[in-house]
Each structure stands twice: as structure tokens, then as C-alpha cells.
Amino acid sequence: RDLARGPGDGSMLMEQRPRMAPSPAPAPTPAPAPAPAPAPARTKLTHSGGVLQKNREFLDFFWDIAKPEQETRLMAINGLREYLKSSEGDDLKYTIQRLIEGLAATRETARPGFSLALAQVLQCDETILLRTILDQIKKKHNINITKKKFIRNAVFGNFFGVLALSQSGRLIKEPDILLESIQLLQSLSQYKQYLRDLPAKAIVDILSETPENVFKKILFGALQKDMSSAFSTPAQLHLLLVALQRFPNVLKPQNLKKLLGSSAILSSENVPKLIELLKVAARSVKKDQTLPPLALDLVRVTLQEGTFEMFWKDVVENGLLKEPSGPTSYFCFRLLGGSLPLLNLSQLNLVLTGEVMRHYGGHVIITQLPKRFRFGPEMTNLVDSFLESTQDEAKQFMVIKCFSSLTNYGHPVIPSYWKVVCRLQSSVLLKYVDWLKNLFVNPDFDICTQFSTKRQKENKQAIDRAQHSVIRLRSWIVARLISIVDNYQVKKEEDLVMDIARFIFFHAFFGAKRYTSDIPETEVTLTVPLDEKTRDVMESSFFCLLNHLNSLPPLGDSAELGDKNEKRVFGVTADGNLWIYCLVQYASVLLSQERSVQAVKPFTQIQRKAWDRMLQSVEDLQKKSKTAQKQEASAFQLLFLLVGIQLFKVGEDSLALLSDLHKCVEEWEQKKIKKHSAHVTRKEEPDWVEVIVEILLSFLSQPNRLMRQVSKMVFTRICPHVTKEALQLILNVFNPESEEGEESALIVTEDFETSQTKADWSHDDEMEDESDSDESEEEEDNNDNDDGADDSDEDKSEEDAEEEGEEAVDENFRMELMKVLQTANVISKEGESSSDEDADDETMMALDKNIAALFSERKKRLQAAKDEKEKMIKEKALRKNFKIKVLDLIEVFLAKQPENPLIFDIIEPLIAIIEENLSSHSNQQEQDYLRKAAEIFKNQLCKAKTYCQNISEMKEDLHKLMERLVTRASKQSDSSVSLYCFSGALYLLRVLKGKAVNPAITEKTEKGGKAKTGQVDLFGNMDMKKVTELYQGALTLFMTRRKCSLTGSMFVNLFSRFPVMCERLLPLAIVSITDGVREHQRGQACCLVLQALQSHDVRQSFPGDKWNELITEVISQVKQCLKTVTAVKLKVEQEEVRKCLELVQFLIKTVTQQKLDISLAELTSVLQSLKELEDLCKISDLYWHVMKLLGFKIPPKVKVKAQLPDPAAAPATLKKKKGFLPETKKRKNWKKKKNPTLENEQNKKENPDGKSDEAPKAASDRTDKKKKKRRRKSKKTPKGNAADNTEKTQEPAAKKSKKNLTEASSIN
């Protein structure tokens, strides 16, 4: 059963009987105390002193049933069932008693658990009489004799008891018990403050399982009163609707007329009642945001009666929609989406073209603003579930067509990328695409469900709405067709994709003259000609479609027949041709049909020759792509096709690029024939690779995703042919000096970026203007002051502009203004007086014109300066975006050519990028630029698995480069930049060292033949003297300078990756243990020495006595370092001692394990002296671990008992009691001062000072008498009338509190 929630009762789960779904956290009721000693398993029930004694296993079942864990509850119920099957004696009786008590447990989550357990027990053992159980429930939870404060628990006990009987499945078999249960639920319906409509829902659930004959004989009479008052509450109406569906033979029209006065649920008299009931039902589920089950049952009944049209028109559209509240509107939307599976085609057409859909469209437009509740996602889920569940093609097409026809001034409210399209069947998808194309050709708004918002109706600007609507509709249709191609979840064939691409290309660049069978697009002519704006959108959308086609996976059967181990190729058809090549062939057919087709921008003779030559080159390259030069040929082919198809948009630029590509192909073919002829032509003109790189850079300068993707694909295929000059062209982009040269190119592409971005995402931003115009519509319904708020915002903006203008006032403008005023004699000169009365009207009018002209000119200058500033910001963003895209080429080159020696030219430019942007990442774009450059340097370069091997000719240059990097790392102000420089130097060190070969092995290979690598020692091409001096200087700098950008982790990485350097840098590291400038450097020196001593290669390089001398020297240095330690309070001091102790630990283990002849006595004494240091406890674990190696034990901790303070020696002042005010804070008896008695007056006469000792005593006596009276009254009150007494005793308390308030106010 569904989850029902009562007021203040938490979650109460009426669970399904077959699945035994667990209930939320049930709480245990107080159980009988177990025996002191655990009894044997499954002992019988015994009585000992009136206390039930049960075994632990049996009692745990009841505690586990009330636990919040779902699995625990289910296991407990199943365990109880199995236990009762094999038990004997009174266990069953105790179980029923315990479960019935748990039905009214205080913890609300425990009640459903006990109800489910009781239902399972009754289901398993049919010998238990339901009469007995029902009598026990009524007796245990009798509401009439229950105290007032326990009535709520008793109500829930009766309710969950009936639920248990119903869930047992036996209630229907015993009609008498069924009738009593229904009557009990009816009596519980008066406690709505506890149960709300849960009894009515329980009756509905029981009816859904009751046979017709039982209902007719027994329940019909009992429920006749509830059904006759069906229009009183939604729960009673739901009861009648369920009965009408379950028992149509019993509730015939004549019987229904006796109950309601009408033979049908829906009649003209009942319409107002139904509207009010549905409003109540809509408000009841406002927080749950669901559709009440009453609604769909009402739809089913109206469908049976044949009154659905009347219900939808009169009740929903003319009733509920007139209510301006949100819950009723959302109720109508959910009713629309939920009733879709129940309706036929005519009813779907009625629902999907009515006022509810128009109301939904207005809601979608208004809620585009932020922080608004949006029903769109929920409606999408409802439509998605309907399309997934139904297999009726006509219904699918009707729903998708009607939602696509819901338009606001031509633009459909549903997004162009709608996920429900993937649920359409193939035939429905084809029909839907044809419908979209026909609507594009003939934009007939009569078949659309049009609507307009309140603000749009009030807007009376002179706008050509018809033409504007056509433009918006066609733009959305193009975007929807592209989304069908882009959505990989939509099941589509190649013919459909090609049909969409041909349609968009034809209407973007061509127009039909007459029909021809070769071109299906000429079959229908446009009823409304395409305007220039629509063609621009279609042109940009076509190139967006090309981008999707270029990354489209194989479609249809070709995707399934392919080998799983074979690499999938994207952007090709089943026969292996590129999608763009298919479109070029289609364009060639269109160009050949000049009688039937006319181009929007006709080709000139030069352009037509270039087109024909491009086609011929592509065909030649296709033949060559089957040879060994497949990569280069496919790259040229892709470039030719892309540049060729751009002839339809930018003809002149494409002509120049095509001529360059032809030259590149010719040069490439000549180099294949004569490889040595390249040096002859290189001096006169650039290499073909350089030209291709320049073309790719020009592509990347255009903010177009297609160009970026094609550039990356082409560069991947020509990577092996990249020369140093071609790579330098790419690296020049990152040079700050070259930004001036890039500025002009980037300014040219600025407008193209805007148009391309709008073209790509026009279907997401079409309704932005409408949402801006309607942003206050919903607020106007609730608040009439929005216009004033808008006016105030405008005033504020004007004031801000004026303030900015005042701040921008300069002296030149001030002088010009003074001159204008002086010429009009408004401002007096020195020694003269002026007056406004001397100037006539003409003079003042002329002065106003001059001042207005002056301010207008100044405003223009300020706007020009502002525009120039925005232009510079935009150009800077364009340059940065261009550099981010060029980094793609660097990443591709490092990934595809890791052994190319040109990689070494990339190291310094990447480090320069990191240096430049690390401290200036002010916006997200610069952060992305820096992050991408750093990831490329770290992952693609420094962590590359392969690297250049043949470096014998450039080893000197590499040594110089490594020296520059190490020097650069030491001079950085930021250690993070220094880390990248040092990592680059380590990469070069790995390249120079190479894959070392053992000399002995090399000698053997030289006898048989030459070694393949040419490396005859462990150092490779590395000049060990230069490298050692370089890193010794860096290590000395790190150890001797207080502020150095180098870090210890850099040298640890050096020692761990290159053990050959440890032997040469180890002496310097040993000396630095004591000579380090600070504690940090000394600790890092210990870490480096430990890293070196642990290396196996270092151990082999110090044979015999040299190893003993080395260990002795290290021990001596560590001993001297530990002697200088005077405190370990600071973190750096603790780190130094910790590193020293780690090194000492290794030294002691080495001496003892290798049995070296080295004395550790002095070291032991130094270590013992460390015990006297304060704060040694922070490193005590490591310290005593070292001392344990020397034979010392950790001293036991002496627990010192806390001495209690001597009460005799304690101060005389006692501790103040909590809850009592000191004497100085107590309030004086103001009553006595306000109403003095006669005795007080006499005392005043006797004592002029006003001091008396008897007055306080008399006041205390009166308070004691009042307390005694209250105690007597409380003793006299009988216990039986506790409720009445509580009400009576509450009144004096209220009076007292009121009196205290008056006292407090008077004191204040």
C-alpha cells in the first residue's frame, strides 16, 4: 500500500502483503523484564511472581520489529513466523497480546511494524479467529474509557489493528468481521486531527479487494451514507468513484440516482461541487507535489459515462483554471500529463489543444526567470513515461505534434533538445521529421496552439508579428532537426540523417525554381520566402550540423556488424565515406541543376573552377588514401572538403585557402618522389607543413567548434612531418610580443564569433526576449507595486550614470564650460557683478543650446572611451581563447610524437605560460588557460613513457637548456613555478641519461656486432661533470639561503629517480646536516642522506671500508646536529628532530644488522640527553622507538592521584549555590512600601529613620500561610477528576503570570 502520513504521526507505512515491504523506524514498547539468568532456548511461558519469563531469542523479535533498520525489521518478522511454527504452549497467545499492545505504541514509527507483524501472524495461522483479535483490539484500545491524553494512541491502535486484519487477506472471508471493521473505520473518521483522511483511504483499499457479492450483501448498506454524501469531502467522493469502477452492476444508474439525485457523477448540477472538491484536493497535495488518486479515478468514471468532454471543458478549463492559485494550475498540468494513457485520439486532441496547454505555455515562459518553480521537467517526465509505455504510433505522433505546436508568437515553448524524442518509434520519427519540414516550408499557424502573455497583449508596439513569428518558428525547427541528429539516444538511420542535412543545406544556400525528380527538396515551394536573417541562422546552423556529423558514430546495422576489437571511426557512413563528402557531392548535384535550382550567392567562374578542381583533388586523394600515405591523404581530403564547402559562405577567403592547399599537395607529392629535393625549395618558399599549420591556426582563430575539431584531426595526421619552423609558428602564438600581430585577425573574427554562437545555440535563447518582457507578469497578479520598483531601478541607474559622469569630469571640460558661460555673460569676470535678470530669453536659449551641445559631445567621448575599453577586454578574451585552442596542437604533438627532438623546443614556452599566468589568474578563462598548460607540461611531457633517444648531436644544447631551467628554478619568487622548472630539468636529465647499458653486456654485443643504442656506460650522453656542478650549486643554494624557491622535495625526487647523482651529491648533503642555515634545511639534509643511504646503487658504490667511513661520518654529523637542539617547542624544531631520529634509526639498524665496527656510545649519550627537553612528548613515539633499538625501555607511566583539597585549608567563602540570587540582587518588598499598614505608620513615628525589624517577618508569615492553603487545596482534589482539576488550576496560573507581567512592567 502507499505511504500515508498523518499529522504529527511521522510516516505510517501500509505495506503490501506479498512483498512484506518494511515500515519506517518502529519503536519498541516496554517489554517484560527478562529473568536474571538466561533461560534455555525456546522455553515455555512460566509465571514467577506475576512476571512473564521468556527466553532472550523470543523477546528480541519484538524489539527488532520496532527498530528503524529495514532489514532488521523484515528479519525479525520472518524469524517470529518461523519461531511460532515450531513453538508450543502459550507463545502464540503472548505474541498476539504483545503485537496488539504495540499497535498503540507511543513511538509513531513502531505502530506500522507491529501492524505488519500481526498481519503476517494471522496469515500464517488461520486457526486464530479474527473475531477474537478484533475483540481484543477493541477492548485494549477502547476510546470511550481511555484517558484524554491517551486517546491519540488508542485511535491509532484501532486504525492499525484494522489494517492488520485487512493485510492478512482473511478479512474478506469473514463478512461479519469485515462489516465491523468498516464500521470501526467509519467511527474513527471523526478524529481527523489525528488521522485526517486515512480511514477513508483504508476503506478504499479494502473495497479494491472485496468481491462484488460481498459488497452487495454486506458493505453497500454500511457505506450507503458515505456514498450519498460523496460531494462533501474528496475522500468520500473517491470512495464512490472506486465503488463505481469495482461494482458497476451494483451501482447502476438508478441506484446512483437514489444516492446522489442524478444518474451520473458528472451533471450540470454537480459541476460546481466537483470544482470545489478538486480545489480542496489540489491544496491538500501542495507540499507533496503529486496528483491525488481521486483525479485519475474521476477521469476513468467520466470516460465510462461518456462525459469526459464536459468534464474537461466545464470542470477543468472553465472551473479550475479560473482559480489564480498555483496549486490548482499545477493540478491541471498533472491531470493533463497523467490522463494521456487513458484517452483516445479525439480526446487527446481536445486536451492537447485546449486552454490547459495555453496556460502551461504561459507558465513555461514566465518561469524562465531564476528562483521560480518550474513545472517543465515534471511535464517532460510525464510525456516521456507515456511515450515509453504506449506502442500506438498514432497516439505518439499526436502527442509530440501537439506539444511542438504550442507556440508563443511562432516559437514553441518546449526546448529544441527534448529528451522524449528518443522514445519515438522509427516510423513515428520519420513522420515527425516530415511534419517539421512541411511546417518549415508552409508555416501555418492555424494548426498551432498559439498563446500570448498578459504583458505581450498590453504591448502595442508596431511590430510585424506575422513575419517575426515565421522567423522564430523556422529557427526552432532547424534547431530541432539538428538536435535529432545530435542526440545519440534517438534511433535513426543514415537515410534520415542525410535527409535532414540535405534539407538544411538546400534552404541555407539554394532556392527552388521548378520541380525535378533528382532533387526532392524542389517538390514543395516556400509559401513565405526566407528572409536574410533566417538564412544567416541556417548557414550557421548548417556548420553546427557538420560538427555533429563529423563526430557521429556509425548508425544502423553498421554499428552492430563492426568488430568489437576494432577501433570505431567517427564521422563516416556505412560505406566509409565522410559525411561532409556526401554533402559536397549533393552540393555538386545542385550546382549542375541550374535550371531547377538557384544559388543564393551564385558562384563566379573562378569559384566554379576552384570547386571543380577541389572535387578532382578529393577523388585523387581518395585513391591515394589506400596506399601507405593514408594519414596525409585523409588530412588533405578533409581540408579540401571543409574549405570547399565554405565557398558557399565566404567565397574569396576560401579561394585563397584552396590555392594554398593545392600547392601543398603538389609539394607533398614531389617530396614523396624525391626526398632530397626539399632543401632546394626550402630557401625560396615555406614547406608545405608550415602552410598547413598556418591554415590550421587561421581555423582556430575562428570561434567555431567545427574548425577546432577539424584542426585537431588534421594536425594529428601530419604530426610526423612537422618541422622546426612549423612548430615555431605554433609557439609564436604564446609569445607576448606576437599579440600585436594577432590583434587584427582576432578583431576580424569578433563578429563571426557572435553570429556563430547565436547560430549554435539559437534554439536555447530564442525566448530570452519574451522572458525579459514577461518577468513581472506573475508579480503583477500578486503585487501592484512592481512598476514602481522598475521605475525606481531606472532612476537609480540614471543616478549612477550621473555619478560616474561627475567623477569623470576633468579640467579641460571645466574650462570649456567656463568659456561657454563667460561668452553669455552668465559668470562675472573679476571685479564685476552679474545677475540673471540682465540676460534676455534669446540669450538664455542660445546658452542652453551651447551647454547641451557641450554635454552631448562629452557624453559621446565618454561612451567612445567605454566602448574602446570593452573592445580591448573582448579582444583580450579572444586572444586568450585562441591560445587555449592552440594548446590542443601542443598536446597532440606531445602525445603522438614523444620521441621527436622538437619536443625540447616546447619546454621553455610552456614554463613561460605558467610563469606569466600563475600570479594573474583573475578570471575563469585565465585559470583554465593556466590549468591546461600545467597539465600538458606535467602529464604529456614530464611523465611521458617514451622520449627521444638519438640526442648525440644535440647533447650540448640539452645541457645548456637544463642549466637554464635549474637557474630559472632557483630565481623564481614562487616555489610552485620553480617546481615546474625543476621537473623540466629532471626530464632532460632522464633524456640525457637514456636507457643505460651495462659495459660488460656492451662488450659482448660489440664482439658479435655493434650495440643498438650506442650507449656504453651508465651515464649515456650526460656530461657528469657539468651536471654534478649544476646540481651541487643548486643544493648549496638551497642549504645556505634563508629564502629560496627550491624545496627539499625537489632534491628528494632527484635522489630517488637518479641514484647515480646520489654518490656525487651525498658529501654535500652530509655536511649540510650541521651547516644548514635553518632547522628546515638541516632536517631536509637528513632526509636526503637517508634517501641516498637506502639506495642499492649507492651501497654498491661504497665497498668495504668506504662504507664504514661513510656511516661513521654520517653518525658524527647527526650527533653534532642533535647536540645543538635545545628545545622542540616550535614546529620546525620538531620536524628537524624527527628527521634526525629517522636517520638515526636507519643508522642503528645498519650498524647492528651488518655488524659494522662502529661505536654508538657517544650517540647514545646524546640521545639520552634529549629526555630532559620540554615538549618531547610530541615526538616521543619515534624517540623511544630509536631508544628501544639501543636496549632502553620506555619508563612506565606513574599515575598520580589527584589530591583532594583540605577543607580546613579552604578559604572561608563558600561556593555560591546554583539557582539562588545573592542578597544584593534580590528585589525588595515593594508592596509594603506601596500600601503601608497602621502598625508601620506607628513604627515610623517611633522610628523616624524608617527602620523596623517586624515588617519583613510579617511579610514572610503571609507568604507561608498562602503556601499552606495551596497545599491543602491540592490534597483535597480527588484523583478521578484530574482533567477537570488541571483546567481549574490553570486559571490562577494565568492570573499569576499576568500579575507578574504587571509587576515587571512597573519595575521597568
Write a brief caption for the model.
With 1308 residues, this protein is an all-alpha fold. The protein contains 60 helices and 9 strands.
Keywords:
1308 residues, mainly alpha, 3-stranded mixed β-sheet, two-stranded antiparallel sheet, 60 helices, extended, disordered N terminus, disordered C terminus
Overall description:
The chain is mostly helical and 1308 residues long. Helix content is 64%, strand content 2%. The chain contains 60 helices and 9 strands. It has a 3-stranded mixed sheet. It has a two-stranded antiparallel ribbon with strand order 1-2. Strands 3-4 form a two-stranded antiparallel sheet. β3 (46-48) and β4 form a beta hairpin. α13 (271-284) packs across α16 and α49 packs antiparallel against α50 (1059-1075). The protein is extended, with a radius of gyration of 46 Å. The two termini are 61 Å apart.
Rounded to an integer in angstroms, the radius of gyration calculated over CA atoms is 46 Å
Q: Report the span from N to C terminus.
A: 61 Å
How can the largest sheet be summarized? 3 strands, mixed
Assembly of the depicted chains: single chain
Identify low-pLDDT runs.
1-53, 559-563, 676-683, 740-808, 828-836, 997-1016, 1232-1260, 1275-1308
**Strands, total number:** 9
Kindly state the percentage of residues in helix: 55-70%
- The amount of beta strand, in percent, is under 5%
List the strand order in the largest sheet. 6-5-7
Structural class based on helices, strands and sheet pairing? mainly alpha
Specify the overall morphology. extended
On the 0 to 100 scale, the average pLDDT is 78
Counted by DSSP, the helix tally is: 60
